[in-house]
Amino acid sequence: MSSEYGDPDRPTILHCFADAGTESEILSEFGDVIRVSIDPKDTNESDPIRADAYLHPENGVKDWGFPIKQDRSFDLGLFHPVCSKWASTTSITGDPDSHENMIPSARQIAKEYCDHYIIENVPKAPLRNPTKLNGRMFGLPIEYERGFETSFRVPEPPRQGSLLTNTGISDTAETSSFYFSERSKEWWAATKAYDPQPYAKQHLAKNAIPGPYIHYLIRAWLVVYEEEQGISEGRVDYSDYDVEMKTKRRDDANRNLDEFTDGSMWQGCSATSRHFPVSLTTRWPRCYVEILKYQQIKSRRCESGRGIPSMISYFRTRVEGERRMGKAVTDVALDRKLEQFVRETAQNSADAALEGETPHLIYRYVQLEGDELEDFLEAIDWDNLQPHLEAVAEEDDEIGVRSMLDRINRGKLPLLVVEDRNAEGLGGEEFSKETNYASLLQDFGSSTKDEDEGGVHGVGASVLWGFSAFKTSLFFTNPAEWSDDESPRLVGRIDLPYHECPDQDGNQQEWQGDGWIGAEDDQGRRAVSITGKEATEIATDQLHVEAADERSDSPGTTAVVIGFREPSRSRRSPAKVVERIGELAARYYWPLIVEGGLKVSVEGPNDDEPNEVHPEDVDWLTPFIEAYDQYEAADDELDEAPDVATTEVPVTIPHNGDQPTDGEVTLAVRSEDGDYDKFKNQVAMFRGARHVVKYRQYGYTARTAGQEFHGLLLAGHARYSSDVNKNDVAESDATVEDFFRKAEPEAHNTWEQEVSKLENNYPGGHEEITTLIEDRVPSTLENLLIDAGTDETESMESVGGQFPYFSGGPSHGPTKRNSPGGGSSIVENVSRKLSHLGDQYECTGTIDLAGQPADQWEFEIKIGVVDAGGNQFDTIALDDVSARPADGVGVVDDSDTRVVVGEDVASVEYDILSVSTRDLTSIGDGKARLNFEIDATLEEDSWLLSISPLTSIRITTTGNRSSPS
Question: Which end of the chain has less neighbouring CB within 10 Å, N or C?
């Protein structure tokens, strides 16, 4: 807008609160600048005016002494109101309240005089929707973060994670203006892009806004200014350029060779066309067309503005007649409990160990927020990926997409990072088959594992998608077989169900749910892996993968589960998730860990470093580990408890049309003297993978023999040291190993389930396993235990006392107790819903105390098995216990089966889940009963309910007469 100041054809700019006026040096390049301040210095091409731009509260607008006539206006105003009120140093050395807030004055001037404005201040200042800029966004070796309130849209540019120096990438190049004396005035002038002569060193370092900030803001303003002035009329619209080019590349990839060589594809593309800078008259060979397409791809991948390539997400449109997959493939394979996640990921890392090396598996729970979240979303092509997720969320209430999208809108995204080191990594060409890469990411259900490894079905890694609310995982891997120049490799895989949503041109499309994240394939087939330095830059600077720059030095894979959540439950905190993962790793992989075949660590969002899992420190595992350490040198008879004995149990491996193989498995037993109650009377079963497939309950055998115990059943290669040479393994043991390997279902959690792979290779194998586990093992156990047993009467009294039982009570609904004897006035109400689904008991309900607890209190729930006469003869161990305050307020510790509740919580919701009940089939038909043990003191009467075998609270449920199957 023209005015009496300067050239009427140039923009006019008002610059206020600027004594030195450093920024006017740049502003003057774009227009005529009038600068108003109390003590203006004549330092550059701007016209300084000495005046006070602050509207003093006591004077009011009418007495405002601003020196510019009100009938004059400016195209742009830049304001620097004093920041002392919000500066960090003020809160340390002075009183913030003693400083004036000059920001309203700046807004008032802008309103009165300026078409558009910029108000600058420190990030803590009360600016309206400020754009925050800092040195990392422009590659500057200074942080110098400032906020800018603007009347026009200014997007925040992405930040660089590392800085380049003459010796390479370094984080130590950055300095702070607080230490301005450590650099010369010329250094500060060069960094902030100003002339060093007119300005003091301290001012350049502490007060001058970096020149790149000003240029960035001016560019954003000029877009608006040129539109308003009509300068942009007639220009080509590039806003849809990338969308058009992506569509064109996709179309080109499906053209025949003759279409590329006869010039038909160039119709409408002149030498000045924005599509391709080539002539229509030339017959271009296909190879050159591919080069042009590659150039377009490269330019699109560098849009981040930081020189760091970004990734694209790719989905395939459904072709008419193709099957619509209404459920994600990875959801079909396995259950989605945390136990299964740990079992499968640990097994995969163990199987991928480099020869002679111990793989190190690390689980990290990461919560992305703020700039890191923005960087991450930008890197995975969120603008393209989000519409697909929104479309799935509209039709789905199971995956959890909507809930996770809402979390992102609240500024948080949880990730579970699973990293292994000293492992093979994901090697193989991009479109290869029967490689680690193809088996995990491309060809679902295939396996490249050897016969002596843990996995067999090729579906275990599906848990990486099953635990992602977005069904999306990223893989940052350093394949051991790749050269240093090729590594590492970065790619993402998506496994959504079929869905419908618009494409980038706005046309509604049907999409197959499987997708990829990576670089665009030069033939448009899908996204492919990004490799080498580019992969490291993205993983480090945008995905914020911890120690990504070290990945190339350590073969293995880092898998990132995006939007991590537990499908079977939603209320476990990140700390509890990490704690539970460590517990499960110890529970199922202690044989492999104690032998040095695997190292496992866990790291929560508040941990400084990973914490290694040590099964030896888990109290209830001690007797199992002792039995494992001593079984080879043990006798075949038990002495006084605790003692370890070992014996062999025969097993006959059937073959199709051939003679069966006579083999044996090792049974190691440690007699229990009362020190370890948890998991007692159970046998841990495993083979050469040293992954405990199952803890099987033999409590009835212990009661018959009058001696409690902990046991091991070692099959196949487990009877040898973990580093045994295959040639030294007896042929019968090798057959037994393969037999039990094929007996494991996809979940690797039992040998007793009918599995087609077993029956196809060993017809009748299921019957042999049933006979072994239900007849031979308990018979052998009983013979070992009976001579070492205690007095039978004493043993039965002890066992019966641990599990008090009471008749009556429904299997559903609340139970109220109002008087001691039949219950207690301490407990007002207990509700429960007990069901048997699959092979596990599940129960949900509430416990309501009759008043406010005087102190923290505890409760424990046990599942008992009773016969037709109501006599309890066995218990079912719990696999998981979850509890929380009914109203969501207060603290409940459910890390153990005995739950500890805070004193401010009087009502608790709970969920319990038993271990598998398949092992109860041999003891006949039975029914389950819940026994509640509650230890609490109320404020009203301070009457202590103390739980013991003689005074258990009588809140019991029976009536579920379904026999476990």
Answer: C
